Amino acid sequence: MPGGGQEPGSYYVGVDVGTGSVRAALVDQRGVLLAFADQPINQWEPQFNHHEQSSEDIWAACGVVTKKVVQGIDVNRIRGLGFDATCSLVVLDKQFRPLPVNHEGDSHRNIIMWLDHRAVSQVHRINETKHGVLQCVGGVMSVEMQAPKLLWLKENLRETCWDKAGHFFDLPDFLSWKATGVTARSLCSLVCKWTYSAEKGWDDSFWKLIGLEDFVADNYSKIGNQVLPPGASLGNGLTPEAARDLGLPAGIAVAASLIDAHAGGLGVIGADVRGHGLACEGQPVTSRLAVICGTSSCHMGISKDPIFVPGVWGPYFSAMVPGFWLNEGGQSVTGKLIDHVVQGHAAFPELQAKATARCQSVYAYLNSHLDLIKKARPVGFLTVDLHVWPDFHGNRSPLADLTLKGMVTGLKLSQDLDDLAILYLATVQAIAFGTRLIIEALEAAGHSLSTLFLCGGLSKNPLFVQMHADITGKSEEEQRRSLWAWQQICPAKNRTGLEIAGYK
Ligand SMILES: Nc1ncnc2c1ncn2[C@@H]1O[C@H](COP(=O)(O)OP(=O)(O)O)[C@@H](O)[C@H]1O
Ligand SMILES: O=C(CO)[C@H](O)[C@H](O)COP(=O)(O)O
């Protein structure tokens, strides 16, 4: 039984729907992690830049992981459930059934994923309007946000999808609806991805100007006209049907959701750093930058007053830490880019065989291989003749240019394991330089940052963490002490951390 020893008073379940998998955690009332489970989810790429998922597939995966983490406990001690997910667009008809977001008419694939870049002409036209709401997303709307995708559906799938649609959800809000039957949306998703304003609500002039006056006409019922702060309790809690699906007791409290990067940012930015002799101890929470690095990387910086950073999303009020403004930098593909570069190399089969023989991940093997070939100088010098520009999927921040492409200079005729290891290193360094570019943009606009706090899959890669310290750090002393890789988020410590920083 998880947690052993003294029976805690209460349990809480958190579900994190990432790009590649669904994860669930069971924690007690102190925030101590008691159990963890993950379950892969399907992704479809029917054509280049079209990325789709299934809401039914994701909900089923949620049930697999929640049932696993509550095995062996008294489920009647479970007090609450919360969801976070990627900001993908879920489409349902008026009876809440999935609708196809593809030309094949496959309604099982009813999600346009966050990294989908199909709506290029739509987002170009939206940005050409120079409408005022664009000042809340760094001046340029991303093709990955919801308005361009909604316009694409109206212009391309009018009969098979748009005219039949009853509900458009951000994925985190779909999950809380599925759990409670409540269609209220979270302030987090609507403010960050839909142009909703916490103080003014929807801006009719924006939706009319871009050709989506449909939403204004029905008072935004399809995209949400009841908005709650993240963490607010929804309706009567978990419905009996959802309780059966998830293996949890009906009626437990279900929280209004968060986008995945915002949940990771909230968990990390308030980390309790006392007693580690770190430079950031006693520094304000606004001097911390949370970097949620997985398939993508999201750079979450908060401030007491709004800061406009050209090319960086936000400023968003109370979208992550209540009472604070949020700026979100980002790199659309980081883990995905490293996987793409490594798996596409001619020496990958040899790498895979050697890593398997050593019972290591390919990244652990590559990291040790780099140490083997680095000779006398620090490993970072191995790429003195090889450089990567990482914008293989456009530049999210701070250049905010979806047309940019990736680049590699310094290639030779050889394609052996050494070449693969050095190309992998150059890619990791390029991503760290991208983070440095985002930090410089944030600081030029008014942020004062001293420490990076990493979480997500890439924070398990010591080379990725070290290159971020080396490339973004200010001095040798600060480099060693300034980066705090928080791989195991423990809410109890973070709650204490937020109290340290003076924020309850
Ligand atoms: N132990 C590890 N070492 C190196 N890279 C890792 C490790 N674990 C996960 N990753 C990378 O992190 C990315 C997935 O990040 P994760 O946060 O787990 O998922 P998601 O993006 O779905 O939220 C993938 O690119 C994967 O290769
Ligand atoms: O835009 C987002 C957050 O604002 C996406 O949800 C995020 O970039 C995807 O996260 P991950 O890389 O963990 O799958």
From TrEMBL:
<comment type="similarity">
    <text>Belongs to the FGGY kinase family.</text>
</comment>
<protein>
    <recommendedName>
        <fullName>FGGY carbohydrate kinase domain containing</fullName>
    </recommendedName>
</protein>
<dbReference type="InterPro" id="IPR000577">
    <property type="entry name" value="Carb_kinase_FGGY"/>
</dbReference>
<feature type="domain" description="Carbohydrate kinase FGGY N-terminal">
    <location>
        <begin position="11"/>
        <end position="267"/>
    </location>
</feature>
<keyword id="KW-0418">Kinase</keyword>
<dbReference type="InterPro" id="IPR006003">
    <property type="entry name" value="FGGY_RbtK-like"/>
</dbReference>
<dbReference type="InterPro" id="IPR018484">
    <property type="entry name" value="FGGY_N"/>
</dbReference>
<dbReference type="Pfam" id="PF02782">
    <property type="entry name" value="FGGY_C"/>
</dbReference>
<dbReference type="Pfam" id="PF00370">
    <property type="entry name" value="FGGY_N"/>
</dbReference>
<dbReference type="InterPro" id="IPR043129">
    <property type="entry name" value="ATPase_NBD"/>
</dbReference>
<feature type="domain" description="Carbohydrate kinase FGGY C-terminal">
    <location>
        <begin position="289"/>
        <end position="474"/>
    </location>
</feature>
<keyword id="KW-0808">Transferase</keyword>
<dbReference type="InterPro" id="IPR018485">
    <property type="entry name" value="FGGY_C"/>
</dbReference>
